[in-house]
Amino acid sequence: MTMNTTTLYQHGTLALLVPGLLTGTLPMRTLLAHGDTGIGTGEGLDGELIILDGKPYQVNSDGKVTVVGDDFTLPFANSHFADYRPLLTVENATREEVHDQVLALTHGANTFFSIMVTGTFTDVKTRAVAKSSRPFKSLAETAENQSIFTRDTVKGTLLGYYSPQIFDGVAVGGYHDHFLDDDHTFGGHLLGCGRVTGEVQVQIFDTLEQHLPVDDTDYQQHDFSQDDIMGDLHQAEG
């Protein structure tokens, strides 16, 4: 089978999480059929996921890292088949400096791309949300029940996606980064880090394949005009 390395697959949208449409509407086996690399979250915002080399690692609200099974379901996720190209080497760079350099070198502000940064990170701060159950609350309410994890110095991988601002709400306009350490004992949604020394790779996509949960009645019947999508998203993802 020829793997399409120029397409980014996305199930769901970040906007649907805002009112609490947190039902898992895609099994992991289907997500992995569309890529061996990615990020996402489980039903009820069950932790943070990072997929590397075809293995879906979940960081739960206790900080435990496990590989989830094919039946694990997700309300939102991205995946793609990895075909990164080296872009630059950084030394003691901030995450913001890395982000800015990647945009400057790729001229990619108006397209989707993925970055992978491998190396040594300082002052790393991640988070994972505790799984909620039905009836689901809003994203803002659910995200309040999160755990914060920190490491002074850690070797690992930053896996991120960049989305153009015109797609803000479908995804995060700008960068959305997750992190996993080399020992697979620490990670989550990356809230911040101090400095990074390592290698930066990039993969640019010319196609977004957007998959929607049309079999989910709650999604189909919801009126998004009543939601503060941008405000709640930026607060929760910050």
Automatic annotation (TrEMBL):
Pathway: Polyol metabolism; (R,R)-butane-2,3-diol biosynthesis; (R,R)-butane-2,3-diol from pyruvate: step 2/3. Its EC number is 4.1.1.5. Keywords: Acetoin biosynthesis, Decarboxylase, Lyase. One of its GO terms (biological process) is acetoin biosynthetic process. The keyword Lyase applies. It catalyses: (2S)-2-acetolactate + H(+) = (R)-acetoin + CO2. One of its GO terms (molecular function) is acetolactate decarboxylase activity. It is an enzyme of class 4 (lyase). Pfam families: AAL_decarboxy (PF03306). Belongs to the alpha-acetolactate decarboxylase family. This is Alpha-acetolactate decarboxylase. It comes from Levilactobacillus paucivorans. The lineage of its organism: Bacteria, Bacillati, Bacillota, Bacilli, Lactobacillales.
